[in-house]
Amino acid sequence: MTNVEKWKAELAAKAKPEKIKVFVNFFKTGKGEYGEGDKFIGLSVPDNRAVAKTKWGSGNSEISEMLASEIHEHRLSAFLCLVEKYRKLKKDRNAREELIDFYLNHAKRANNWDLVDLSAPYTIGEWCVENSDFSTLYRLSESANLWEQRIAIVATVTAIRKGIFSPTISIAEKYLSHPHELIHKATGWMLREMGKRDITELRNFLDRHADSMPRTALRYAIERMDEAERKHYLAFKTKKNAENTEK
Question: Is pLDDT above 50 for 24?
Fold first, then answer.
């Protein structure tokens, strides 16, 4: 049995097949949906992470094989492995840089929102903050690939936690006209996270853009505000919609 076969077997041993139907619906795997055709074994994130943490010493070829799997939890395990590997390599900048290059070369395999959200902030996001260089996120935000676009905005949460807001603001402004709800949700989420740390920055953003934001992004962004302030910003959107209707 190869190392990859052992890895998959360990995941299978913790899986609960009765959860498969729930996951299939939750991750939108139907025809025409963003997760179309994805397959599951019914494994929870905590159980997956427990296995992935023991695999951090796996080589790139083994991780690549896991990322190539049609099974959702195999790919997630590979990305969780990269998160653990990145953490373990904190004293080796060159090795971390190689890991980031590997992640970016396989970023399109993070092809559902949980794969992005559970890995990008702790790898790409960390790397950008450590090097005070967010050009990778700006480049990803220009990608034609939905998942690379989501990586770009979600990974800014690492900067937000350090009090650095410009990457979030810049990418959120770029996504004001984005057509996909997954990006609307991620953008609103990051703006809300920014508001937790600096409500003035969030208000300034909303004062400029609330009327042109996708409604889902706006609702996510204002979720923690009091009712009066939520209504205030939603009114911007309502007024803009009414003006557009009259035209």
Answer: yes
pLDDT band at 240 (very low <50, low <70, confident <90, very high): low
The per-residue pLDDT of the chain, averaged, comes to: 95
> What tokens does 202 get?
């969030």
Name the residue among 151, 94, 92, 84 with its Cα closest to residue 124. 151
CB 120 within 8 A of CB 151: yes
The answer on pLDDT for 49 being more than 80 is: yes
165 C-beta neighbours (distance < 10 Å), count: 23
Q: Give which of 23, 52, 59 is closest to 38, Cα–Cα.
A: 23
Q: Where are the beta strands (DSSP E) in 107-205?
A: none
| Percent of the chain at pLDDT exceeding 90 | 91
Which residues fall within 8 angstroms of residue 137, CB to CB, at 6 or more apart? 124, 128, 151, 152, 153, 155, 156, 167, 171
Q: What local confidence, expressed as pLDDT, does residue 242 receive?
A: 46
Whether domain 133-247 has CATH 3.40.50.620: no
Q: Band of the pLDDT at 245, cuts 50, 70, 90?
A: very low
The interaxial angle of helices 181-197 and 166-174, nearest 10 deg, is 150
pLDDT for 236 equals 81
**Count of C-beta atoms within a 10 Å radius of residue 239:** 12
Q: How far apart are CA 231 and CA 237, in angstroms?
A: 10
Nearest CA among 177, 244, 241 for reference residue 213 = 177
* Residues 108-139: b if buried by 16+ CB within 10 A, e if exposed: ebbbbbbbbbbbbbbbbbbbbbeeeebebbee
In single-letter form, the type of residue at position 143 comes to S
Which sequence spans correspond to the domains of the chain?
A: 1-118, 133-247
